[in-house]
Amino acid sequence: MTSWTKKDLLSLYDLEAEEIQFILDTAAEFKKVSERRVKKVPALRGKTVVNFFVEPSTRTRTSFELAEQRLSADIINISASSSSLSKGESLLDTVKNIEALQADIIVMRHSAAGAHNFISSHLKCGVVNAGDGAHSHPTQALLDIFTIIEKKGGVKGLNVSIIGDILHSRVARSNIWGLLKLGANVTIGGPATLIPKEFAEIGVRVCDNLKDAMEGADVINLLRIQHERQKASFFPSIGEYSKIFGVNEDTIKYLKKDALVMHPGPINRGVELASSIADGPQSVILEQVTNGLAVRMAVLYLIAGSLD
Amino acid sequence: MNKKKGYILKNGRIIDPTQNIDAKGDIAVFDGKIVKPETLKSPEIIDASGLVVAPGFIDLHVHLRQPGGTDKETIATGTRAAAAGGFTAIVPMPNTSPVADNVGAIEYLKRHIAQSSVVKIHLCAALTIGLKGENMSGIGSLKQNGVVALSDDGRCVQNHEIMRHIMEYAQSFDLPIFDHCEDDNLVGKGVMHEGYWSTVLGLRGIPAASEELMVERDIIMAEITGARIHIQHISAMGSVRKVREAQSRGVAVTAEVTPHHISLLDENLKHFDPNFKMNPPLMSEKHRTALIEGLKDGTIAAIATDHAPHTPTDKLVEIDYAPFGIIGLETALPVCLTELYHKKHLTLPQLVSKFTDGPASILKIDTGHLKEGSCADITIFDSESTQTVDVTKFYSKSSNTPFGGCEFRGKVKATIVDGSFIYSDLPGIKGAI
């Protein structure tokens, strides 16, 4: 593969293995840029990127914004409360207005799954998914996979376990597709109420206990347990979750010695992950954040190129 | 057309499942009734060769949206869509705004039906006041005012004790209860069938158990109370199994299925098109197959459209925010001919029965047949020719269908109500619409 042709990045489900690899290779080049003294490149000079965060976000929005700045794009930030959505305008009308202002790329986060698939078919400008409901968060999965490759030299044949609330997680749904396409063995683990058994149909190993899920893993990716989910009776209490499913000094022994510990953040310290592990030698959590910048620069650069 | 002389539908394939007729022949009509051909003097001859002549179709499940939703549909537009789809009679659901839960609302409907409807309407009133599932509506008074069925469609009475009392009371008036079976807690904020595709798409799932539980509840209550219960838009494999088993024990339970549930799957939602969002949701193949089995063995006696108009403004949004439902009156026959008859699941008489005497028997009305002396409600269709669905040609005020642009075999050629051609695609014969 020598060039990128898609105007949108909606989900890793839509991409071929070689397309995922192409983004990762491009990200590796941008990572080198980030290590220079002057970190800015003119790749998106004259392009306008609109960061449209209908659902609040700090980490992802900051990462995108910084990536856009480093690419020299012109940037507009809109949140749900500052947009006309709060006046009852439909999503489609809002994004069509943004497009009419000659935005080249809309980076959107939205609480409804499929919101990006819906708008992208009505827009000529590029659409980058920064998270939609429980559906997809492709740049997070790309930065996770980028980090694994950087540390392990590749993902093919690696045992990667994703642990926690899989049911409500777009991060899990994106990682699962990306990892499977690149040849990893994927396991999901957590309370039976939060790990959809249907994933077994696409070759994911499904475990409802932590030991099985962790044993022999080269990488574990822990997902945040959302306190608000407790109301819906998925598990008895945060205390029990931590006791039965938390990764700590005792349970980390199930992993391979050189296994990586990952987390997309924000971490609930002492719930899904003990502080000592989060800050320990196996943790690559902050490197994930750093790599996110390179991955997002790559995605924006490739999509901008496809629009020319 | 000369009304004094009457007319003969000549050389059609006459199908009347109630009389076991499936043969080439003639149907004579005079003064709105079906008569013996030899009684007519110099009648007009209408060539029906190559076409099926069937009893008028009856749709047990339609939303006309009047009053309160006339931007989506009206009695005038909805009944024209019905006629264009081959339906001579329909049952509009009472979940309008305000709800048809009292005699005044029924009187309003009757007045507007008299003014605007082009097909026959069988009145259905709400089970409970405001569809709230709490206080039963004036069932006896509603019956006195012409109501033939009761339904809280769109909602399901959750409290079993209240449902028991409603069923006990309704059975004493011999009114069937049309139930939209779902357990509200299990449905939650679900937007599609819970299964492989909801897992992949990250859309909140609605488990099949949400319908199956309430079907079981209704069957148990029907046994206790002797009420007639009719399961609306049955969609889950387990529901079909429960209904079949209950019928074999003599419980008065019937069921209808929609054309979309026998033709589409949850997988169709993978592009997040809200025109595939309906309630009950589209299910997986095993459920779809079970529905077809239910039609084949007679467990499901009727096909009903659940014609649910929505404006593009309402429907053209994120899946989570889009309303449930699609329109179906003008696509029902082509979809069912293609999926059920041409794919050899049902014979043509079996399929016709699901649109005619099947629904008539559920309503306990003496239509849905072509017996001499009965009113001339007749549907004429071509079972073979191929057509592409063109939403711009719909009589319905709405166009929210997943079938736009799809090709189907079969086409309605004429819809006759009380002897009058309401819709006609026959050469030389003008329909009223």
The major beta sheet of chain B can be summarized as: 8 strands, mixed
Structural class of chain B: alpha/beta
Reading the helices and strands of chain A in chain order gives EHEHEHEHEHEHEEHEHEHH
Globally, the shape of chain B reads: globular
CATH homologous superfamily designation of the largest domain in chain A: Aspartate/ornithine carbamoyltransferase
Q: What is the third-level CATH name, the topology of the largest domain in chain B?
A: TIM Barrel
Residue-averaged pLDDT of chain B, rounded? 97
Which overall shape of chain A is indicated by the principal axes computed on the Cα atoms? globular
Percent in helix of chain B? 25-40%
- Fraction of residues in β-strands of chain B: 15-25%
Helix-strand category of chain A: alpha/beta
* Cα-atom radius of gyration of chain B: 21 Å
What can you see in these coordinates?
The complex is a heterodimer of chains A (308) and B (433). Chain A is an alpha/beta fold. Chain A contains ten helices and ten strands. Chain A folds into two domains: 8-136 and 289-307, Rossmann fold, CATH 3.40.50; 138-286, Rossmann fold. In chain A, the strands form two sheets. A five-stranded parallel β-sheet of chain A has the order 1-5-4-2-3, with helices on both faces. Chain A has a five-stranded parallel β-sheet with strand order 8-7-6-9-10. The two termini of chain A are 18 Å apart. Chain B contains 14 helices and 19 strands. The longest helix of chain B has 17 residues, at 209-225. Chain B has 433 residues and is α/β, with parallel strands linked by helices. Chain B is globular and about 65 Å long. Chain B folds into two domains: 7-53 and 375-394 and 408-424, Urease, subunit C, domain 1; 55-363, Metal-dependent hydrolases (TIM Barrel), CATH 3.20.20. Helices cover 29% and strands 22% of the residues of chain B. In chain B, the strands form four sheets. In chain B, strands 1, 2, 3, 4, 5, 17, 18 and 19 form an eight-stranded mixed β-sheet that branches. In chain B, strands 9-10-11-14-15-16 form a six-stranded parallel β-sheet. A three-stranded parallel β-sheet of chain B has the order 6-7-8, with helices on both faces. The A-B interface holds A 13, 90-92, 110-115, 117-118, 121, 132-136, 170, 173, 196, 198-199, 201-202 and B 195-196, 199-204, 271-272, 274, 313, 316-321.
